[in-house]
Amino acid sequence: MRQKVGFARAMAVEPELLCLDEPFSALDVLSAEALRGELLELWTQGQIPTRAILMVTHSIEEAVFMADRVVVMDKGPGRIIADLRVELPHPRSRKATPFLETVDHVYALLAGQTPPEPVELDHLHTLPSISLNKLASLLERLDETPHADLYRLSEELALSSDALLSLADAAELLGFVTIAHGDIALTPLGQAFAEASIRARKEIFSSRIRRLPLFSWLLEMLWAVENHRLSRDVVLSALKSKLHSEEAERQLDIAITWGRYAELLTYDDSTRMISLDPAGIPALVQSELAKASQK
Length: 295
Fold this sequence. Notes:
By secondary structure, the chain is α+β, with helices and mostly antiparallel strands. The chain contains 13 helices and ten strands. It is 52% helix and 15% strand.
């Protein structure tokens, strides 16, 4: 209600320019969606005299959903790295291919347009066993001081060197940090993750892990079957052809954990079935369409 009062107070003076700073980040998902819809309805139907709305957000999906122009910024020093028009008619569908392509394009800009990893498991980079909460904590700490000495971070975060190196390995693998000469530095994508809402963090994480060979392989396997679900034993058997038994078990457990966090996978402990998460299917549809267009 305080947020709604804030909107009402801002619009009561009928401003030519309405400035919004993370206006929906403090709200729950349903309230935020409702307030976005109300604001867009007032704006697109000309029910308010405001001539322009300027909004700051860390949510790429939110920016593409609402804006006609997205300006992507970097800091240290602050600068514009991209300025693109969003030529999509309102109201916009989050599941529509043009919408998903635009979201993916903005992610690519933030990630430095990193090319997708090869799908073949012969090029498999094993996933580090880490706590995703501790990974988030590491990135939040680096957001305060973008460059840090790994050794000092180990003491500061009260982590063993092995634990910190695993976290750093995971962060580098996902494109969130760069590591050189014992120093670790946050990338623009890592900064976006550190400063994002929970929902936006999941979107960024999902976008990054889909590029990893193990996930590309696993998602393609699930996508290929009619109901998008496979027995854990079937997946494990295929993985054991590339990794020894213990490592295959470990990698599959990590992949399931990461996939569940990213809302790409679901796993039923009682039936031992791995499935595509319905929430992640639109992004996979977009990936398949992109692959088809390249062919």
